[in-house]
């Protein structure tokens, strides 16, 4: 009797969450899949089958935005994790008030909203860099948001600045849980700082890599606000990422059925990359 009552209360408390998830996530998701097979403009729709998906294969702007986003994600994921791990090692070497100050300082950029962050760095790349160009006479500082190459690296720099402190916190939590006895034993055996890191710490950080790689991949693939604030996809759409391409298709060109098809393909791409990363990361944890 008691178990049946507990089960009844269990579903009673769970029901509001299920209703909310269904209304906010599941229904829009399945409706979006249906919409991708229509020519919806936001007001009217007609079922057209897989025509939108066939059209995608010839859409150069969409394919270009995917390639740009994949390159951005690859560079950003490597950069964020290298910097985040480096910062984590730096602030855990000695535990004092100064290390606490640096942890807070490195994490603060993650608290700034993407649009605001983008406009701050837009000022730096345009106004500050132009001033440096005039002061030093170096062309390196000129037109950072005016070309595809420099625009790409501008987006990478801002993403690294924003995300590295967040990933640092994850590495710190795992570094602090490494038994000190293992570090001490490695030193007694004659291991130097690099050997201690590579042979002991790095191998015990495998679960941290799994989490950090997943988070950075997910965030890198869905960047929109920084893209909007820094380059707005320019010049001539050369720095347009997939999220912006889908948004422009849906709300500027009013081809919402076509935009949904882009979204479904992009979802499958992100899922494939994320699941592959999780598989190999988990396998590495077991091997170690």
TrEMBL record:
Membrane-spanning residues: 12-34, 66-91, 111-132, 152-174, 202-221, 263-280
Q: SUPFAM superfamilies of this UniProt entry?
A: MetI-like (SSF161098)
Q: Name one Pfam family in it.
A: BPD_transp_1
The keyword Transport is annotated on this UniProt entry: yes
Q: How does it sit in the membrane?
A: Multi-pass membrane protein
Q: Which domain of life is it from?
A: Bacteria
Give compartment(s).
Answer: Cell membrane
Keyword Glycoprotein on entry: no
> Cellular component per GO?
plasma membrane
Tell me the leader sequence span.
none
Domain ABC transmembrane type-1, residue spans? 66-277
Q: Which CDD domains match?
A: TM_PBP2 (cd06261)
**Keywords attached to this entry:** Cell membrane, Membrane, Transmembrane, Transmembrane helix, Transport
Question: Which GO terms fall under biological process for this protein?
Answer: transmembrane transport
Q: What is its main location?
A: membrane
**Family listed:** Belongs to the binding-protein-dependent transport system permease family.
Instruction: State what protein this is by name.
Output: Carbohydrate ABC transporter membrane protein 1, CUT1 family
What species does this protein belong to? Pisciglobus halotolerans
């Amino acid at each position: 009797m008691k178990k049946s009552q507990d089960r009844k209360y269990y579903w009673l408390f769970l029901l509001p969450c299920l209703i909310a998830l269904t209304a906010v996530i599941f229904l829009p998701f399945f409706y979006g899949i249906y919409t991708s097979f229509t020519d919806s403009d936001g007001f009217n729709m007609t079922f057209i089958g897989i025509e939108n998906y066939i059209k995608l294969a010839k859409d150069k702007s969409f394919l270009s935005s995917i390639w740009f986003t994949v390159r951005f994600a690859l560079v950003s994921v490597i950069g964020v994790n290298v910097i985040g791990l480096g910062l984590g090692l730096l602030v855990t070497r000695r535990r004092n008030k100064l290390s606490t100050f640096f942890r807070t300082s490195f994490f603060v950029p993650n608290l700034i909203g993407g649009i605001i962050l983008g406009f701050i760095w837009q000022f730096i790349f345009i106004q500050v860099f132009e001033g440096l160009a005039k002061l030093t006479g170096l062309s390196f500082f000129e037109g950072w948001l005016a070309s595809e190459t420099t625009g790409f690296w501008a987006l990478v720099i801002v993403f690294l600045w924003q995300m590295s402190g967040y990933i640092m916190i994850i590495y710190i939590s795992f570094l602090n849980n490494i038994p000190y006895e293992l570090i001490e034993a490695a030193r007694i055996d004659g291991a130097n700082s690099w050997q201690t890191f590579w042979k002991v710490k790095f191998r015990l950080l495998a679960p941290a890599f799994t989490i950090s790689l997943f988070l950075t991949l997910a965030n890198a693939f869905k960047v929109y606000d920084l893209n909007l604030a820094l380059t707005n996809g320019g010049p001539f759409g050369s720095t347009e990422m997939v999220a912006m391409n889908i948004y422009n298709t849906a709300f500027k060109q009013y081809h919402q059925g076509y935009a949904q098809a882009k979204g479904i393909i992009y979802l499958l791409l992100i899922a494939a990359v994320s699941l592959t990363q999780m598989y190999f990361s988990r396998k590495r944890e077991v091997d170690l």
